[in-house]
Amino acid sequence: MTFGFASSSAASLSTSASAASVSRLLEPAEWAAAGIPLLRNPREVVSGLHVRHRPRPSTAIVAVLDPDERLLASASFTRRSAPADGWMFRNALLDQLRRVIPHDLRRRTPVRTAVLLYCREGDARWTEEDGAWMWGLRDACTLHGLRCGAYITLTHDGWQVLGEGRGGRHPHAHSAPESFALSESPPLMPRTGGPVSEVMRRAAAR
User: Which phi and psi (to 5°) does residue 53 adopt?
Assistant: First the structure.
């Protein structure tokens, strides 16, 4: 009788933990309805993070962008081999954010945005693991005073911004990163006109 009671309690606790874990994820429709800000140039963001962190499957990259989508900070880490749980993902993301950038909790309105790129096996279709990462990203952003930005998957099919339907074939989960020279925008040409240009023109004329 004693063993039976203990076994029943353990099963009940296990069931409760499993139910709680399932509840800590977001479905694609919930994510799309959350008003996540769209990236103006998602391929540039993806390519830049791919070059900097060289992710392989099971690598998560969290990045913080300014209002002009310039990269302020980023960190990568490997996902532990454990069941997908939004609460655990939230804690891992929050730990990385605290390491690389101060919080913005004193601001009334967040001005910086956190995005998450997750490299994994499988195809581009949404999984419960993706839902747990979405839940974790949203919660980590709230606790760090940031806007919750895009969730991007990197698979053998390429990259995809979940909830938006935008994506591309390169880079993908097993592609070699491009060089910085190829991934970055070409340098801006110097503006013409003004006193500096006039001085240079006179010097050339000599």
Answer: -110, -15
